[in-house]
Amino acid sequence: MGDGPNPNGKHSKYSVEDGELVRKGEFCPSCGPGVFLGVHEDRKVCGKCGHSAPSE
């Protein structure tokens, strides 16, 4: 396997600040909170519904 956790894994989408859970990823506008968009080189894509948007 690799050397440690995947830097793009689920744990990288969350952090805890002042005892509060903070979601750092961008949500799918169609599916809503809890479904993150996958960030690719040229686009952002929802793995659940297939929504696609150009990457910034």
Mean pLDDT score, rounded? Answer: 88
- What is the oligomer described by this structure? single chain
Strand and helix order: EEEEEE
Query: Uncertain spans, ≥5 residues at pLDDT below 50?
Result: none
Helical segment count: 0
Radius of gyration: 13 Å
- CA distance, first residue to last residue: 32 Å
Portion of residues in beta strands equals 35-45%
**Largest sheet descriptor:** 4 strands, antiparallel
Strand order of the largest sheet: 3-4-5-6
Question: How many strands in all?
Answer: 6
Shape descriptor reads: globular
Structural class computed from helices and strand pairing: mainly beta
Helix share bin: under 10%
How do you describe this structure in short?
The protein has strands at residues 14-17, 20-23, 27-28, 32-39, 43-46, 52-54.
Give an account of the 3D structure:
The chain is mostly beta strands and 56 residues long. It has a domain at 26-55. It contains no helices and six strands. The protein has strands at 14-17, 20-23, 27-28, 32-39, 43-46, 52-54. Strands 3-4-5-6 form a four-stranded antiparallel sheet, with no helix packed on it. The protein is globular.
Topology, please?
Elements: E1 14-17, E2 20-23, E3 27-28, E4 32-39, E5 43-46, E6 52-54
Antiparallel strand pairs: 1-2, 3-4, 4-5, 5-6
Supply database-style keywords.
single chain, 56 residues, mainly beta, 4-stranded antiparallel β-sheet, two-stranded antiparallel ribbon
